Backbone:
């Protein structure tokens, strides 16, 4: 059975270095980092990627007080994606619009805040917020979008660790193909910088980045890389069936042509080159293309010593013979946006279909020999004659791997 083709017609995002695709892309090409000094209770001074978007553009202050940071990010991205797609939601039955944000985790921020608050009152639980439960359920960001936009269709979050942003996009595509919805918003969101636990945990693993210059702290593939910069952010895509998009004359960013999700089955934290290799090959097979047909690989690399080297080993195994496949990385600009990472990283590369320019990995002062891969784009943008296919990679803890393939749309 031939499934309907699905395309991206809108992008809504907030990142540490831009709150629209145009600004975000301009900063990627200009080498502008969004990493800055940051301080959080119990951990103290550290570094993070912090978003600064207009929270009241699509929400009332009362809604902000009642909701969550992840919900606010999701609401902003959802509304911006609809605006960017130039579509009126009124044209759809509200029960036929689906919301699918990927998340790394949800609820830690609110739980930490509540415990901190009641501790100041000798753990008198009468001070515990009655909003706590709806704030901490795993479907909160998706649910807040439905409340904000008056939607009644399937809305839930995809828990996929740091691969979640790809999962949200894949879910939206599949629900469109199955005919469950007529319009979908899929991608990822993260509020991770507001929980001290994630910083403490990475620090205990010696995996938290440090650098005297914040903007240089996230440096995948560099010989002196020393860990992750935790970031917040979000990106949701407006997804439509191709026939529907063409019928309304929509601008099409890309067609989603393939995807894969698999598991290493090896370790809680350590990645596996063989698992990542298999994920890439499954994605290529689902798209019906060869590795040589991929023009750009958006790498996951988080700036950890072992993780980057393992991923490069996997990419060499899959793309080593391709002289025309380039590789770049976006975390070097914005840090690791966790559940939003995959979605944001794909967004930053979509304009390559139009302008033919590949944004580089920045902060590579000395390339680690273990991270040498053919056609790695470093420090300065590279012009390419043609960008036709992009593979977006994202991996996460407990061995989850994901890959999405998108193609430049042609009639």
Residues:
């Amino acid at each position: 059975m031939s499934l309907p083709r699905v395309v991206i017609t809108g992008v809504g995002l907030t990142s540490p270095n831009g709150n629209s695709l145009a600004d975000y892309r301009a900063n990627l090409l200009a080498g502008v980092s969004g990493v800055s000094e940051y301080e959080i209770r119990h951990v103290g001074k550290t570094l993070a990627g912090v978003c600064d978007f207009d929270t009241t553009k699509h929400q009332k202050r009362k809604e902000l007080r009642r909701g969550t940071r992840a919900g606010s990010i999701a609401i902003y991205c959802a509304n911006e994606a609809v605006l960017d797609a130039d579509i009126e939601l009124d044209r759809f039955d509200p029960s036929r619009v689906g919301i699918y944000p990927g998340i790394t985790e949800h609820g830690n921020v609110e739980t930490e805040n509540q415990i901190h608050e009641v501790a100041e009152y000798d753990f008198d639980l009468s001070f515990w917020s009655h909003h706590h439960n709806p704030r901490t359920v795993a479907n909160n960001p998706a649910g807040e979008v439905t409340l904000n936009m008056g939607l009644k269709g399937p809305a839930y979050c995809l828990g996929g660790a740091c691969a979640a942003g790809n999962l949200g996009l894949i879910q939206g595509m599949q629900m469109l193909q199955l005919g469950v919805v007529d319009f979908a918003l899929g991608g990822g969101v993260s509020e991770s910088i507001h929980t001290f636990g994630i910083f403490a945990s990475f620090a205990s693993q010696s995996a938290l980045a440090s650098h005297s210059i914040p903007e240089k702290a996230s440096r995948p593939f560099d010989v002196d890389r020393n860990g992750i910069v935790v970031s917040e952010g979000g990106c949701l895509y407006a997804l439509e069936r191709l026939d529907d998009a063409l019928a309304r004359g929509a601008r099409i960013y890309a067609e989603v042509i393939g995807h894969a999700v698999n598991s290493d089955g090896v370790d809680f934290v350590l990645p596996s080159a063989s698992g990542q290799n298999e994920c890439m090959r499954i994605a290529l097979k689902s798209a019906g293309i060869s590795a040589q047909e991929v023009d750009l690989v958006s790498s996951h690399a988080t700036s950890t010593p072992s993780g980057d080297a393992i991923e490069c080993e996997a990419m060499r195994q899959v793309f080593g013979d391709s002289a025309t496949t380039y590789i770049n990385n976006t975390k070097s600009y914005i840090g690791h946006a966790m559940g939003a990472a995959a979605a944001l990283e794909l967004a930053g590369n979509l304009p390559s279909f139009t302008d033919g320019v590949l944004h580089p990995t920045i902060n590579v002062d000395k390339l680690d020999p273990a991270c040498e891969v053919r056609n790695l784009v470093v420090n300065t943008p590279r012009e390419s004659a043609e960008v036709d296919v992009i593979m977006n990679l994202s991996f996460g803890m407990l061995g989850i791997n994901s890959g999405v393939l998108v193609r430049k749309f042609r009639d």
User: Anything to note?
Assistant: The chain has two domains: 6-247, 258-407.
